[in-house]
Structure formats: structure tokens, C-alpha cells
Amino acid sequence: MPTPLRRDGDLSRRTFLLATGGLTLTAALAACTPGATTASPSGSATPAPWSPPAEPMTFPKGYTWGASTSAFQIEGALTADGRGASVWDTFAALPGKIADDSTGDPAADQYHRYADDVALMSSLGLGAYRFSISWSRVLLTGAGEVNQAGLDYYRRLVDELLGAGIRPTITLFHWDLPQALQDAGGWASRDTAERFADYAGVCFEALGAAEADWLTLNEPKTHAFVGHWYGVHAPGLRSPDTAAAAVHHQLLAHGLAVQRFRDSGAPGRIGAALNLIPVIATEPDYPEAATFTDARENRLFLDPILKGTYPDDAVGDQPGQLPADPAAFLELQQPGDLEVISAPCDLLAIQYYGVTGVDGIGNTVDIAPTSAATWQQIDPQGLYDLLVRLKDEYPAIPLIITENGIPDPTPDITVDDPDRIAFLRSHFQQAARAIGDGVPLEGHYVWSLLDNFEWAEGYTQRWGIVAVDFATQERTPKASAGFFTDVIAANSVNRD
Ligand code: FCB
Questions:
Q1: 231 and which of 19, 144, 238, 426 could share a cystine (Cβ 3.0–4.6 Å)?
Q2: Triad 493, 494, 496: Cα angle to 5°
Q3: pLDDT score for 49
Q4: Side-chain-facing half-sphere of 224: CA atoms under 13 Å
Q5: For residue 96, what is the DSSP state?
């Protein structure tokens, strides 16, 4: 095996190299679907030719079609009704952290425009809307007295959605930790998991009567790694050991919140939202680094939640592993933690953006076309492979896809977006194919409903199916919104 290469010098949300050399995305999608070649982490390349059938692919009755957003990315109104600061307020205010030096104000100002936005969702035919609650609107310092005005905003939003026949899918934590909790140790501290459970309890009490899907955490991996190891997201730390603690304490928070949910007797469903990524070994003679990367990226989160165990190969100093001290990671785990983390859930939410290649020494390799988000390697077939893997390797659980999408090619307002239509169509086809092969997939949400504040990229990446002019807050549905409306109305996707 070649000398292990530590990649700490190349840490960004983009961990992949560009290799598409001028191929347009539409051409690339056509070239890679059908007939993409994927390989398991064990390195065995398997040609998997597949073509969508000529007739429309129909989804099961009751299939949920939705669109997703998150609080800090769309709400704006950062000081309205006494909202407390989050780590993203603090981070975005630091010079040089956000590509265009922007902040979460005004974002898409949904705090003030939610009623119009719900009407827009209705006009698109959405069956569900996924949004997140800003913890520091509800509890200004993350704990203590409830800020009624902040909580009431979410009551109004939920009522508006239910009135329009749109199912709320409510994320409790989408990375905007109250700054006061960060000051007290953040996710490095076990106490944050307890505070999260208390906050979740407040939300269940206020909103739990609604028929809703609840998601405890959004992408604990991205928050742990990009925020605590790469330093590219809030809170901007660069410590693999802190990232490992953030993994365990977020997962513990998830389990404690699931227990609170059960205790509350709420009628809805609950689970976590994990971003998962097929890892393909590009040097089949040296597959170990890909196996370790798979452990770090996927099994480190799936196994504890669904099986009640941590994989033993995710943390350590081998290429592909999270380079934290395995003994310290073990020490964080108190007796009973894994039982809490694996408290039975009603669903697993998957966020799928693409695949990654990994070479024999742990470098990420581009094996698929990328988008303006250069961390994204687009491979619709990877979604099918991922869904089938979940069915085959994990206990049965209903699945929903709660994020899936691409950014526009430029930072400018774009209304004609053929690349996004091609992306969505090909991913819907792979989802339908997986359902046909027995995967219990129950819904598909696009990322995102609206152009918004894309974290460290600020307003330079537009991911919406609806364009937003941030100066006027005017909303204009893109061509992909029309495409999505047609898919929803037919509950099926055409070949082309
Ligand atoms: C996901 C995040 C979401 C958005 C998309 C593009 O990882 O959950 O907030 O940034 O990526």
C-alpha cells in the first residue's frame, strides 16, 4: 500500500478535484445516465447499465413531493422578536469567512413573507415543506425561558401550511447553534446534547399536535467535519478531536430528542437527516482508503442510529479516516449512549448530492461531472446504489430523500435552468427504479425551494427552483419549478 497521505492541508467543503474539462452538465448527465459504472468500497467495479423505460415511471400513491429550506438560509430577520445570536451570525460577521462577505440578512426574508411563500408552494403543488426551527429564536441563549414571540412564528407557519394541505417537515437543528451554547463548549460538550433535548421538548409541546415529520439533526457529518475540522463553516474550528466529539454529542442529542418525542405522545414521525455518499475506489488494488472513507462518511452515522454500534474503522490515522484519537472518541461514550442513539425512529431522511472517488492513498478523485458547487460529483445512479445498499445492509425503515439538487451555473438570477431539470429528472428516475426494486422510499424533497444564503458561499450559489431577487425579494419560479409541478401532478416521471 502506498504511503498514507494526510490531507489536512486541503480541507474545504470541496474535497474533490475538478476533472470534467468543459463538458456541459446536461451532456455529462446524458453521458453518465444510464450506464454509469459504480464500484463498492471493496473496489470491485460493476458495470450497471440501466435505461429508463419509454413509458412514464409512476410513484406509489401518497408519495410525498416536497421542497426544503433551513432557517438561517432563508428567514432573515436576524433580530426580529428578540432572536438570539447563533454561531452562524458570529461566523458570517468575521472578515473573509463568506465568499461575498454577506450575512444571513436579508436572505429570503421568509420570516416576514411566509404566508406568500406558502401560497407559492400551493401553486407549485407541493405536498410537503421542510423548514428548520431557529433554536435561538425559541430559546435566546439555547436554554431557559421560552421566547414566545419566536415560537409563535413557527406556530403561524405550521398553521399556514396545514391550512394549505401541505405537510410540515420540521428540522430541529440545521447548524445554527445558539452562540451562548457555543460559548459554553458547543458540541464538544456533552451538556449541549441535554440542552438540545430540552429545546426539542419545547418544540414538541408547542407544535407536536400537528401531523408532521420531525427531523432531529440536519447532516451531523457536515456540521461536525466542515464546522469543527475543516474550519469552513461555523463555528470555524479546526480540530479533528472536536469534530469527533461533535459527532458523538450530536448523535446523542438525536437519541435524547427521539425519546422526548415518544414521551410527548406527538402523532407525527421522527428521524434524522443524513447526507450519504457512495464511495468508489479508483485503485481497486488498494481499496482500504475507500473503505475507511466510507466508514467516516456513511457508517459512522448510519450504524449508531440504525444498529446501535459504531464502526471500528471510521476514526484513526489511516488515509480516509477521521484523524482523531480513537481512545478519546471511545472515552466520550458513556454506558447506555448507544442505546439512546439507536432509539427506534420512524424514518430515515437521506440527503443525496452525488458520489466520490477515492484513490489508494485517500485522495478524493473526480469520477463524475461537478456543478458550480465543486464538492458535488453528480451521479444519479449513485442514488439508486445508495438506496439499495440501505435496504440490503440496514434494518428496514421508511426512507425519504430530504435534499437533492444542484446550484445554477452562475451567481446571477437564472430562470431557465435545463441542467436542474435534467438533474431532477434523472434522480427521480433512479428513485422510482429503487422503489421498483423494493426500497421503502416514501418521498422526495428538492433542495431548495428558494435561492438562499448558501453558507460559506453566501449569495453566490443559487439552489432554488424559485429564483429570489435579494434586493426586492421578488420570487420567480424557474423552469425546473414547472417541471417539478408536472411531475407532482402526474405522480410520475417521463423518460425525457
Ligand atoms: C446541504 C445542506 C443545505 C445546503 C445544501 C446545498 O449539505 O444541508 O443547507 O447547503 O447542502
A1: 238
A2: 130
A3: 79
A4: 29
A5: T
Output the CA 228–ligand 1 centroid distance in Å.
16
Q: What spacing in Å lies between the alpha carbon of 404 and ligand 1's midpoint?
A: 9
46 falls in which pLDDT band (50, 70, 90)? Answer: low
Closest CA to 468 of 87, 116, 88: 116
The per-residue pLDDT for range 209-219, each reduced to its tens digit, is: 999 999 999 99
Indicate the range of 43-47, 204-208, 231-235 predicted with least confidence.
43-47
Higher pLDDT, 61 or 16: 61
pLDDT, mean over the chain: 92
Atom 5 in ligand 1: residue holding the nearest Cα: 447
CATH of the domain spanning 8-32+63-493: 3.20.20.80
Which of 12, 455, 462 most suits a substitution to test ligand 1, by most atoms within 8 Å of the C-beta?
455
Split at pLDDT 50, 70, 90, the class of 45 is: low
Q: Which residue from 130, 217, 219 has its CB within 8 A of the most atoms of ligand 1, so it is best to mutate? A: 219
Atom of ligand 1 nearest to the CA of 407: 6
pLDDT in tens, 242-264: 999 999 999 999 999 999 999 99
- Going from the C-alpha of 371 to that of each of 9, 449, 491, the distances in angstroms are 23, 18, 27
Ligand 1 mean position, distance from CA 351 (Å): 9
Domain ranges of the chain: 8-32+63-493
463 lines ligand 1 (CB under 6 A): yes
Q: What does the alpha-carbon distance between residue 195 and residue 285 come to, in Å, rounded to a whole number?
A: 47
**Hey, which residues are catalytic here?**
219, 403
